[in-house]
Design goal:
Layout: H1 2-30, H2 39-54, H3 66-81, H4 87-113, H5 116-127, H6 130-135, H7 142-162, H8 165-181, H9 189-197, H10 206-232, H11 237-242, H12 251-278, H13 282-299, H14 309-323, H15 329-358, H16 365-376
Length: 377
């Protein structure tokens, strides 16, 4: 009887994960860009093509995103093996795939932080979140980096809850991969450090253990940036650090949150954080605020709303914690409410997503793409 219950729970869990992935994938695939879309996408494709032709790793923007370049090249070659010659299609599909994977990783993280019901509600909200859909429809390093630091967070939570030190090093490896995908997202180390030092497990040599964690992060990322340092020397660290833009505050970025969430969404975030405090989840509330502020200050200088998705993700956890807090039949009401809120936010971005699906929005992208491809050949 006990085995049957465990099998039923396991089957239900797999079914939940499959449904979430299928939902996220179908929405993102429906809006996948038909072209290179913008200069970042173009740069990744060109760097991936040059890497494939020369056999030497080329960095995006000259100094960044080696893992994103390699992944882009893999998907371009994969699509070529099926007879699809346009490299932008394979590159854009990469973001669709990893954008869908990030929903699953997000669900697993929130499940560790809260519970399964709240994790499901939060994952539904993120699945229909306009900026997240946007970055999941064209080739870019942001969505790949997000998968890396969500996987790192998941491993850190397993370490925190179960005192399994091996997962601390897994967390370090994934954070290093995140930095290899987008160096700026190394700032995720700050909220992870909070989780580490405020975990329930006690270690007599905790600072030394954290130093080992940092060393593994640097070694993992260093494997991808080694060629860059070998060719250009230590001076290359300056342009890399400049991409982090930490403690850069723009008023437009704070107003962008209002445009993204709308007043009712921000009210729901505030209610969710207050709900956590009432439930004595003070440390979780602090963690969410740290996560939000680190990415908000780090990405506020970029301007476009899609860059704020990294800062919005923890706020969605706050929304999901309140909506998913109802029990029994009220849970289905809350799930319906999450769908309505999610669809409402999705519909606000629908016209923009549809426009970006059909047309490259940056003037000169197409001509530059042709010229760059000719230079690769």
């Amino acid at each position: 009887m006990e085995n049957k219950i465990k099998h039923s729970i396991s089957a239900k869990r797999v079914f939940t994960l499959v449904i979430l992935f299928a939902l996220a994938f179908s929405v993102r695939f429906a809006f996948v860009s038909r072209s290179t879309f913008n200069h970042e996408s173009l740069d990744l494709i060109v760097s991936a093509q040059k890497t494939s032709v020369s056999g030497i790793l080329h960095y995006a923007r000259g100094v960044d995103s080696p893992l994103a370049v390699l992944c882009t090249g893999f998907f371009i070659d994969l699509f070529k093996s099926f007879g699809i010659a346009d490299p932008s299609l394979g590159a854009n599909f990469m973001s669709v795939f990893f954008g869908s994977v990030s929903i699953i990783l997000f669900f697993l993280c929130v499940e560790k932080l809260l519970d399964t019901k709240k994790a499901f509600i939060s994952a539904l909200l993120l699945s229909f979140f306009g900026p997240h859909i946007e970055v999941s429809t064209f080739a870019n390093s942001l969505i790949l980096s997000m998968c890396g630091y969500l996987a790192s967070l998941l491993c850190m939570l397993i370490f925190k809850n179960n005192n399994r030190k091996s997962f601390l090093y897994f967390s370090a490896v994934f954070l290093g991969l995140s930095a290899a995908a987008r160096f700026a997202d190394l700032v995720m180390i700050l909220p992870l450090a909070y989780l580490f030092f405020y975990s329930k497990a006690s270690f007599s040599r905790r600072p030394l253990l954290f130093c080992r964690f940092l060393l593994v992060v640097l070694l993992t990322a260093g494997l991808y940036y080694f060629l860059l340092f070998y060719e250009k020397g230590i001076s290359v660290i300056t342009p890399l650090l400049s991409r982090m833009k930490f403690l850069s505050s723009q008023n437009s970025a704070w107003m962008g949150l209002l445009d993204i969430f709308m007043p009712e969404g921000l009210i729901l975030v505030s209610v969710g954080l207050s709900y956590m405090l009432l439930k004595n989840n003070i440390r979780l509330c602090i963690f969410i605020i740290i996560w939000f502020l680190v990415f908000q200050f780090s990405y506020s200088a970029f301007g476009a709303s899609r860059f704020l998705v990294a800062a919005c993700v923890p706020l969605i956890i706050a929304q999901g914690s309140f909506i998913g807090g109802f029990r029994s039949r009220m849970f289905y009401v809350s799930a319906l409410l999450a769908c309505i809120i999610g669809l409402g936010g999705f519909l606000r971005f629908y016209d923009l997503l549809e426009l970006k699906r059909r047309y490259p929005l940056e003037i000169g992208t197409a001509s530059e793409y042709v010229m760059e491809m000719e230079s690769v050949r």
